[in-house]
Amino acid sequence: MNYIIENATLVNEGITSIASVFVKNGIIEKIIPADGGDGACLISTDKNISNYNVIDATGLLLLPGAIDDHVHFREPGLTHKADIASESRAAVAGGVTSFMEMPNTNPPTLTQQLLQDKFDLAAEKSCANYSFYMGVSNSNMDEVLKTDPKRVCGIKVFMGSSTGNMLVEDGGTLSTLFKEAPCLVAAHCEDDATIKANAADFESGELRVESGVWRVESGEWRVESGEWRVESESFLHPVIRSVEACYKSSSKAVELATKYGGRLHVMHVTTGKELSLFRNDISLKDKRITAEACLNHLWFSDKDYERLGNMIKVNPAIKAETDRLALLNALVGGRIDVVGTDHAPHTLEEKMRPYAIAPSGAPSIQHVLPCMIELVNKGFLSITKVAELMSHNPATLFNISRRGFIREGYHADLVLVDPHKPQVISNDGIFSKCGWTPYNGIELHSTVTHTFVNGELVYHDGKVIDGVRGMRLEFNR
Ligand code: DOR
Ligand code: ZN
Description:
The protein has helices at 84-93, 112-125, 141-144, 171-180, 192-204, 237-240, 243-260, 295-299, 305-308, 321-333, 348-351, 368-377, 383-397; strands spanning 2-12, 15-24, 27-33, 52-56, 61-64, 66-71, 96-101, 129-132, 134-135, 155-159, 185-189, 206-209, 212-217, 220-223, 228-229, 264-266, 289-294, 338-340, 414-418, 423-424, 443-444, 447-453, 456-460, 463-464. With 477 residues, it is of the alpha/beta class. Strand 10, helix 4 (171-180) and strand 11 form a beta-alpha-beta unit. The longest helix is centred in the middle third of the chain and has 18 residues, at 243-260. It is globular. The relative contact order is 0.17. Zinc ion is lined by residues 70, 72, 102, 342, 344.
């Protein structure tokens, strides 16, 4: 099907403008800007459009589809939580047209064959475009170095333990990685020794924090100031997975990448303190060290543990409100380059377990674009910045071929958003297999109305259209 998206408000490359976009054979064929007058761009009276399906986009925003550089879709091996089919449906509902998936599946993605198996699964099942990270262990460097930089988004290293036990601590492995990796190295940074020491204190019932000491008394945690918390111990997550743990590990990653000339991308930065490690005085194209922030850390803060408990137990932990505000500032100031989701579903049953044994991670992809637009409404950033952080910059940072911008000749990965169609997020409407979201009950002012992947309409007015398949991302490297 070919489309004319007529009279839309394009949000693209730093400006918003009225235009009509022709989509033919999966590609953005032409962009016709409004030519003065009343500012409208109505072309459906044109005689040569009989082969096109005209979509009236008057009053709607047209953005390049979001490229999410950080998802956990759980296939193979953990498909009781999620799978590529279910989560790619959640993705397109959230305005995400391409995703890059992490290696902590079961088995973990530690060989080229296992990596290829994931690409094969996605070709069969994914309704969004896809790529997969190669994983690193302490003993698979020969496999890692075989990674094809033109066909694989990057290499993921856990320099902090998280879901999946893929921690890499061996100094030799890390230095070889930053010296010889054929493409970008994406790092999860949380210092394991710091976390282990804090976790041991937690187990012993006494945790030291800046404001004093938390102690267990009669089975309840109490801080010296007298404040009591009894609902869930999850509010201690950012005390255990602390600012210091993040800073120590991110600093080490930056140090190693600088020493060996590696191309480092620090995933899900969560603290104001880490921001000084990243530059905002050079253009993205020239950076060798880049940073990502994720929606959960931009949306929630430690104030939310009381209400949401383990539902927002994620690694690295959601930290203080001051950290959240610092991250939002860094989106605008240029130290953070991209926004991803870290969409990481677990079952509700798993998340209902006591704090210490509930897994970390939460789903978030299905509402990421309207949530980011809500942050625009709250005055934190501009709508053009959202397109930059979620589409243009991921495309530039990963050197993705012909995606991430609304340009003639590019793949037609496009999203229409009605900025005046409010919605209340509900667990009832979740496409993710887990069937819940920490965003349940949140009111948003905007709604994704249409999502196109490679020129095909895959999501419209709350429904995923069956049968559309995404493509493997290609990289100009
Ligand atoms: O919270 C998280 N969940 N952080 C990670 O690093 C992994 C992820 C998961 O896979 O559940
Ligand atoms: Zn992750």
